[in-house]
UniProtKB/TrEMBL annotation:
Keyword terms, alphabetized: Signal
GO MF term (any one): peptidoglycan lytic transglycosylase activity
Segments of skewed composition (Basic and acidic residues): 314-326
Domain of life: Bacteria
Identification of the protein by name: Lytic transglycosylase
Signal peptide interval: 1-32
Domain Transglycosylase SLT: 181-221
InterPro entries: Ig-like_fold, Invasin/intimin_cell_adhesion, Lysozyme-like_dom_sf, MltB-like, SLT_2
Protein's GO biological process: carbohydrate metabolic process; peptidoglycan catabolic process
Species this protein is from: Streptomyces chrestomyceticus JCM 4735
Coiled-coil regions, chain positions: none
SUPFAM superfamilies linked to this entry: Invasin/intimin cell-adhesion fragments, Lysozyme-like
Length: 461
């Protein structure tokens, strides 16, 4: 056998080595260009769906945005400007809640440091926030960026809107079958899995938090090395968020409004009618009655012929004092959500320190104010000697028990919360009742035994 390889063998070996080296270099180069988040890929979602482009899940028909355009010829009260002031646009249309404004500006600052070539303006993030949820107005925006009530789009089951099956196990949208857009910036859960961010530094990436959602939106818009100072890249970025030309026009109009007029910072808790991206949520709302049609002006009364005798002056009757009406929402409660731990404890003879709470929610995960919730105790007394009590949920849909008095002996007991008519699963709280410590006196000293076993009597000196 010839110990030296032939010329064809040497050529084939060299070709194989070259191909392997090229493949290795290509794989190393691709890995080097990915950030750790991109290399890991979107959680529980197809990478194409989470990519920031026109085919992404985020860009699909996922709800009804607020596509109304700013009317800068009217002030905040809807009045026309004085004659000669039409060139000075009123800031009434440019109001943004203080916390939302802080979140948009903070997102711009973060991207200025991490991706300066993107040129992201905070007014663009604000434009998307305005179109998606009107800056979370009417949802109880708090100073930490959270909201009292969740903001959720319609169920994406393919009937009226896009078909997007569940990608988060219901973690963010409360639906384990189909996805919903969530939060003030209306993120699809799969998109949030790749682009979510911690904007308020609490260690949690929460799409329902304004600071987190604003920063996630900024990162998403800057994907693909876009330069948002270029009009074409700006359009592509907005289309990747919602693939609709009407959506692009609305976002750009609001962005230009915030740039040109100047922004009015409004209080977070200012009264506002929330924009509901889910049309089903609007069926229970009260719509305003018909008014004069545009262009008709005011209706003038017909002139009356004067009579011989002057008409007597009308006597004003005292107006009856209106009694405040309780806040009642007639939507159906489909489930109860426990607030805080379901494990409670107390000593024999002492009331439970914490009063259990549940939140009543409808089929879309929205709180139901005024809902009636029944608490039933087993070995636990509520409101005196009763073991059953029905309470009314507050404006946030939260029902709170009265003070709980546990049984007069140690053990574990249950407190069950049920929705009206027994709809939805019940919520159980466990109450652990510990024996009271044994107290005895030894001369001038008072001692307590904290163990459950018997304690030997002390020996006084």
């Amino acid at each position: 056998m010839n110990p030296f390889p032939t010329l064809p063998t040497l050529v084939a070996r060299r070709v194989r080595q070259s191909l392997c080296a090229c493949a290795l270099a290509a794989s190393l180069s691709a890995a080097a260009t990915l950030s750790p988040l991109e290399a890991a890929g979107p959680s529980r979602a197809d990478a194409r769906q989470a990519a920031a482009g026109p085919d992404s899940a985020q860009s699909r028909h996922r709800g009804e945005p607020a596509l109304d355009l700013p009317n800068l010829l009217r002030d905040g009260q809807g009045k026309e400007p004085a004659s000669g002031d039409t060139d000075k646009a009123s800031p009434g249309a440019a109001g943004i809640p203080a916390t939302a404004l802080a979140a948009y500006r903070k997102a711009e600052g973060v991207l200025r440091g991490s991706q300066p070539s993107c040129g992201l303006p905070w007014e663009l993030v604000a434009g998307i926030g305005r179109v998606e949820s009107v800056h979370a107005s009417g949802y109880g925006l708090r100073v930490d960026g959270s909201t009292v009530r969740p903001i959720r789009g319609p169920r994406l089951d393919g009937v009226e809107f896009a078909l997007i099956r569940d990608t988060d196990g219901g973690r963010w949208d409360g639906d384990a079958v189909f996805d919903r857009a969530v939060g003030p910036m209306q993120f699809i859960p799969s998109t949030w899995g790749s682009w979510g961010a911690d904007g308020n530094g609490d260690g949690v990436r929460d799409p329902n938090n304004m600071f987190d959602a604003a920063l996630g939106t900024a990162r998403y818009l800057c994907a693909g090395e876009r330069d948002l100072r270029r009009s074409a890249d700006l359009d592509r970025a907005i289309l990747s968020y919602n693939n609709s030309r009407a959506y692009v026009n609305a976002v750009r109009k609001w962005m230009d409004t915030y740039r040109g007029v100047g922004v009015v910072e409004t209080p977070d808790g200012a009264p506002a009618v929330p924009h509901r991206p889910d049309p089903a949520d609007r069926s229970s709302g009260v719509r305003p009655g018909p008014g004069p049609l545009p262009g008709q002006g005011q209706v003038r009364p017909m002139p009356q012929r004067p009579s011989g005798k002057p008409a007597p002056e009308p006597v004003e009757k005292p107006k009856p004092v209106e009694k405040p009406q309780p806040v009642v929402d007639h939507r159906t409660v489909t489930r109860l959500e426990p607030l805080g731990s379901r494990e409670l404890d107390a000593e024999v003879g002492h009331a439970v320190a914490r009063r259990p709470q549940v939140r009543a929610l409808d089929a879309h995960g929205h709180p139901v104010p005024g809902a009636r919730v029944t608490f039933r105790g087993n070995g636990v007394r509520l409101a005196g000697e009763a073991n059953t009590v029905t309470v009314t949920a507050d404006r946030g849909g939260i029902a709170t028990t009265p003070a709980l008095q546990p049984a007069d002996h140690p053990g574990r007991f249950t407190l069950t919360a049920t929705a009206p008519g027994g709809r939805g699963p019940a919520v159980d709280f466990m109450v652990t009742v510990r024996p009271a410590p044994t107290v005895w006196s030894c001369g001038t000293r008072t001692m307590r035994a904290t163990r459950t076993r018997s304690v030997r009597p002390c020996r006084c000196p």
